[in-house]
Design goal:
heterodimer; A: 5 helices; globular; B: mainly alpha; metal ion binding (chain B); transmembrane (chain B); metal-binding (chain B); transport (chain B); transmembrane helix (chain B)
């Protein structure tokens, strides 16, 4: 439990920083940075959930790094702020994020199951 | 300094999510209740923080640590998607659809509610001064 928590903390720090740097570079009028980390992280976690029984690595990578790399709260806030600015963009952002997020996780899951 | 603040916030957010996940874990539950709670609570707090909390903190580095580090890491989009994929894989289609719709709709609701709460507190403080 203590060891897992330390692993989650380390992964969480790395995930948050990676998200920050990508968002800094790519979030403009459209939040492409948040979009990319969310889709990429969903693919990697979809891939990873087929693995079992690697406790510490699970904590570090899945719960820590990928959990922190991707974000739900920022996504919701961006949806609300985009809605106020540009209604077409918010629709695009909503549809792209939710459909591609699911497709990415599903693709990762299937790809890992095949190997 | 910015990097240290985001890393520290990211650590706390991820560990708190991990612990709440363990605390709320129910062995036979089909619906991923812990992740839903975490995502909704995090969205509410983010809405409040951006409108009101960040005004209290003032220090920009600390705001970044809390907002991007802590709240960004506390909530998770990858787990949300992975859970839907696992539900579908287990043939629990209606649970998957419910989980998806509830998260998407209530996520926006939670952020809006948080922002509203923040602006009410701001106005109250303004009136008192």
């Amino acid at each position: 439990m203590i060891l897992s928590s330390i692993a989650v903390a380390a992964g969480g720090a790395a995930g948050a920083l990676a998200r920050y740097f990508v968002s800094q570079r790519l979030n403009r009028e459209f939040p492409w940075g948040t979009f990319y980390v969310n889709i990429f992280g969903s693919f990697l976690l979809g891939w990873y959930v087929t693995n079992e029984g690697r406790d510490i690595l699970d904590s570090l990578y899945a719960a820590g790094f990928l959990g922190a790399l991707t974000t739900f709260s920022t996504l919701q806030f961006e949806i609300v702020t985009l809605y106020k600015k540009d209604k077409r963009k918010v629709l695009l952002y909503l549809v792209l994020t939710y459909t591609l997020g699911l497709i990415a996780a599903w693709t990762g899951f299937l790809a890992a199951a095949k190997i | 300094m910015k990097i240290a603040a985001i890393a520290a916030g990211g650590m706390i957010g991820a560990v708190l999510r991990f612990w709440i996940g363990i605390l709320l874990y129910q062995p036979h539950a089909q619906f991923p209740f812990p992740t839903l709670m975490i995502n909704l609570i995090g969205s509410f707090i983010l809405g409040w923080f951006i409108v009101h909390g960040s005004q209290l903190v003032k220090n920009k580095t600390l705001v970044l640590g809390i907002q991007t580090g802590f709240l960004g890491s506390f909530t998770t989009f990858s787990t949300f998607n992975a859970e839907i994929v696992l539900l579908i894989d287990h043939g629990l289609y209606s649970v998957a659809i419910q989980y998806f719709l509830i998260s998407a709709a209530m996520g926006i609701g939670a952020v809006l509610l948080g922002m509203k709460y923040g602006s009410v507190l701001l106005r109250k403080e303004g009136a008192e001064q």
